[in-house]
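Regression test case RT-17, inverse folding.

Input:
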């Protein structure tokens, strides 16, 4: 895990997620709240929990997310019972943060379009969906998993190659995956889950609060990476 932390600084994802986090802070600081929305098959439970943590740790109440759900179950706690009709009432001063690792669906796109027309700010983290790109004020694209070199250049998009170890020797006998230098150091391309962790860590790193929080971005990233274990949603979410 320590090696992964060191490699992050060479992939470009630290800067990308910091830039996107600035959009989150700017829109929420000037507004009334952050609405977090997923897709019918992917609800951003862990991102909601981590943004909640960063809100408390950093003293930034505007980062406290409201999780909008597709099908809240009967009897769910109040903060877990907010359905898609909340998007329909979103307007000026509110931010919709859409997390879409898969199809956002026409139903969601239509609601987002109406919310934007009503003045809401739309931020998206997705796979490069063209429809979301046309709606978003800021879009963070997370490519499909592959391999990246320490320079951040893709080595391959072949899913069968994603199990290569961190240290890979590339030579004349190596299958053609864009031959790099001998003993090229590679790391898996950032997963959607890991990028969510980086975004939440960066969101809590408001520059004007850095001296008070006394926690560097590297510390935040380390804490977030250590928590990636594929656990079920936190009990309080």
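Golden output:
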């Amino acid at each position: 895990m320590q090696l992964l932390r060191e490699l992050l600084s060479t992939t470009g994802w630290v800067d990308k997620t910091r830039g996107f986090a600035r959009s989150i802070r700017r829109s929420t600081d000037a507004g009334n709240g952050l609405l977090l929305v997923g897709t019918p098959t992917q609800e951003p439970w862990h991102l909601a929990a981590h943004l909640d943590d960063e809100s408390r740790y950093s003293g930034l109440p505007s980062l406290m997310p409201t999780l909008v759900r597709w099908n809240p179950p009967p009897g769910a706690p109040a903060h877990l019972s907010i359905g898609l009709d909340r998007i329909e009432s979103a307007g000026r001063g509110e931010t919709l943060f859409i997390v879409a690792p898969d199809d956002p669906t026409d139903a969601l796109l239509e609601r987002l379009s109406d919310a934007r027309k009503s003045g809401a700010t739309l931020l998206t983290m997705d796979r490069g969906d063209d429809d979301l790109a046309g709606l978003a004020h800021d879009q963070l694209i997370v490519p499909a998993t592959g391999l990246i070199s320490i320079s951040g250049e893709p080595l391959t998009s072949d899913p069968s190659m994603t199990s290569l170890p961190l240290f890979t020797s590339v030579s004349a006998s190596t299958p053609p995956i864009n031959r790099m230098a001998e003993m090229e150091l590679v790391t898996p391309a950032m997963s959607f889950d890991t990028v969510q962790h980086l975004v939440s860590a960066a969101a809590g790193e408001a520059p004007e609060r850095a001296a008070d929080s006394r926690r560097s971005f590297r510390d935040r990233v380390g804490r977030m990476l250590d928590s990636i274990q594929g656990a079920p949603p936190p009990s309080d979410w």
